[in-house]
Amino acid sequence: MLQGLHKWNAVITDASCFILLDKISALQLLPALSLSVITTPEIAKEFGKPLPEWVEIKSATNKALQQTFEDEVDIGEASAIALAVEISASILIIDDLRGRKLAKQLQLKHTGTLGILLLAKRQGIIPLLKPLIEKIQATNFRISDGLVKDILVAAGE
Questions:
Q1: Which class is 10-154 in CATH?
Q2: 87-120 residues labelled b (16+ CB within 10 A) or e (exposed)
Q3: For residue 88, what pLDDT is reported?
Q4: Whole-number mean pLDDT of the chain?
């Protein structure tokens, strides 16, 4: 599981992380955990509302690589993965299974939104993870019961 973000120069996040954290009123956890939160214009558009000022919006420069990734994942995920390839010492926050598989194939450091919540608990930024998990379960974001159990065990809850 994710240890800490302090050793990473950048946290690159996909739209699902912004959307989910916004739905549970926890978007402020991202800057509390990292010095630099970056996303792409494609993801900013997917998010559908203005991003906080602490989010840097940056395009991947290798558009050919991004287009290659678009054969496997959607344009937002492709742009985030392409940017993560370009920025050394970055970690990618991505929830989509196909996107996570591609990130793993590319040997990119990655986690999901639940990994970010677990890290926030471990760092004492949030006192309990379970109330946030319950808020997530009340949304249209699907999490398996097994994953919920594993995350809560990892959080000591």
A1: alpha beta
A2: beebbbbbbbeebbebbeeeebebbbbbbbbbbb
A3: 80
A4: 91
